[in-house]
Amino acid sequence: MVRLVHECPGYDRAPAGRGTIEQATSLDELGQTGRAVQLLTGLVAEFSHASAIHGYLGHYLSGTGQHDDAVLHSQQAVNLSPRSEKASHVHFHALWRAGRWSEAFDETKRFVRIRPAAAEYRSLIDGWRRKDDDDEATLDRVTRILTS
């Protein structure tokens, strides 16, 4: 799981939520993602302006196949923290898993424009490059699109 806690505003304003986020993370690691979603659903109602909570909830919802809800929460994380690379990355993956590839690439482009040295996206592109060495020209085009 991508850890959002240290980068997203709102986490420090919701100290009571820290333990719940950690508990949700532990549940997910134990394969109890549904329970993690339940915990965070209650927490997000209480701390609706904490982008980290929306990001974690979006990630876990996506993992349980609840793609529409995952996209809504990951989008809210991005809305609350538009410069957070972690929130953007979670949103990208929620969109991707929902089959909304064009929107996922649009999110990548949005974020790379404001933070050109985005490590998560550079890592993602490098991963594609390693998996698809035989199609270097396609990867170069994708890289140019994402960074243009």
Topology overview:
Elements: H1 15-29, H2 33-46, H3 51-63, H4 67-80, H5 85-97, H6 101-114, H7 119-131, H8 136-147
Helix pairs in contact: 1-2, 2-3, 3-4, 3-5, 4-5, 5-6
What does this structure look like?
Helices cover 73% and strands 0% of the residues. The chain has helices at 15-29, 33-46, 51-63, 67-80, 85-97, 101-114, 119-131, 136-147. The two termini are 29 Å apart. By secondary structure, it is mainly α. It has eight helices and no strands. Mean pLDDT is 81; it is low at 1-13. 37% of the residues are buried. It has one domain (15-147): Alpha Horseshoe (Serine Threonine Protein Phosphatase 5, Tetratricopeptide repeat).
Inertia-based shape: globular
Q: DSSP helix count?
A: 8
Low-confidence stretches: 1-13
CATH superfamily: Tetratricopeptide repeat domain
Please identify the structural class as seen in this structure: mainly alpha
Major sheet = none
**How many strands?**
0
Q: Please indicate the count of domains.
A: 1
Oligomer: single chain
Mean pLDDT: 81
Distance between the termini: 29 Å
CATH architecture label name: Alpha Horseshoe
The amount of beta strand, in percent, is under 5%
Instruction: Tell me the radius of gyration.
Output: 16 Å
User: Could you spell the SSE succession in H and E letters?
Assistant: HHHHHHHH
In which range does the helix fraction lie? over 70%
CATH class: Mainly Alpha
CATH topology: Serine Threonine Protein Phosphatase 5, Tetratricopeptide repeat
